[in-house]
Write a structure and sequence with these properties.
alpha/beta, Cytidine Deaminase, domain 2, 6-stranded mixed sheet, 10 helices, 6 strands, 17% strand, globular, binds zinc ion, C->U-editing enzyme APOBEC-2-like, APOBEC_Cyt_Deaminase, cytidine deaminase activity, metal ion binding
């Protein structure tokens, strides 16, 4: 359903510039996909098993976790700079951006292992990057360790992912998650807003990416050829717009 309304939005507001950018990103993604891993359906069910541990609060119970279709997810060390500039741009309407990019850092509180980092890229039609993270990157959750997880996402989680993430966090008290999102995904939808409040109730820190966070993500997760990120003109204004919306939603 989210995909459908996203598609409608895309049709409605897609500008000529965005349409061009979208085509180029599609080509980029097509070529990198050949090198990407293909997630198996087996590990998808592990997330479901993981998520069954805790009872949801009443307002979270209205949201039905989605069926898991066959899927393909791209994982990598550093993403293409063009894909970053397009996918993470914090425009008000996410025209042409029918994917989620999720950059992650995992601190296992263990100096010897250091930080685990990388990125995931999904097609919205398949299993979402958030869920893949928990099966693939945190599949070997050792209850004796404390995991401090930070995500920098191109857009905030959909309602289904928000419920799943909340359940994982409630079941695994040794996992702390902070999410920094470039944009809010369909924030006008009541179901989405409720999902964000579920995340907050489960202890997830949810924030919008500030201009500095974009630069940090560029430096840390992008194949940037040692070039600095030139922030787009309205980056700060757009951050403030989203920040205000998020604060309103979380306070309700
Ligand atoms: Zn999702």
């Amino acid at each position: 359903m989210a995909d459908k309304s996203r598609a409608q939005m895309r049709k409605k507001v897609r500008s000529e510039k965005d349409a061009k950018e979208s085509t180029e990103v599609k080509n980029e993604a097509g070529s990198s996909k050949e090198n990407g891993d293909v997630q198996t359906a087996e590990s998808a069910s592990a997330a479901d098993a993981n998520a069954n541990g805790a009872a949801a609060k009443p307002n979270c119970e209205e949201l039905e976790p989605m069926e898991v279709p066959p899927f393909e997810t791209i994982t990598g060390d550093r993403m293409d700079p063009f894909a970053f500039r397009f996918q993470f741009k914090n425009v008000e309407y996410s025209s042409g951006r029918n994917k989620t990019f999720l950059c992650y850092l995992v601190d296992r509180g263990n100096m010897a292992d250091g930080l685990m980092r990388g990125y995931l890229e999904d097609e919205h039609a398949g299993t979402h990057a958030e869920e893949v993270f928990f099966t693939r990157c945190l599949g070997q959750n050792d209850p004796a360790l404390k995991y401090t997880v930070t995500w920098y996402m191109s857009s905030s989680p959909c309602a289904d992912c928000a419920v799943k993430i909340s359940e994982v966090l409630k079941a695994a008290s040794n996992v702390k998650l902070s999410v920094y999102a470039a944009r809010l995904f369909e924030w006008e939808e009541e179901e989405i807003q409720s999902g964000m409040r579920c995340l907050q109730a489960a202890g997830c820190k949810l924030r919008m990416m500030k201009p500095l966070d974009f630069s940090y993500t560029w430096d840390t997760f992008v194949d940037n050829d040692d070039q600095p990120l030139n922030l787009w003109d309205d980056c700060k204004e757009n951050y403030e717009f989203y920040q205000e919306k998020l604060a309103d939603i979380l306070q309700q």
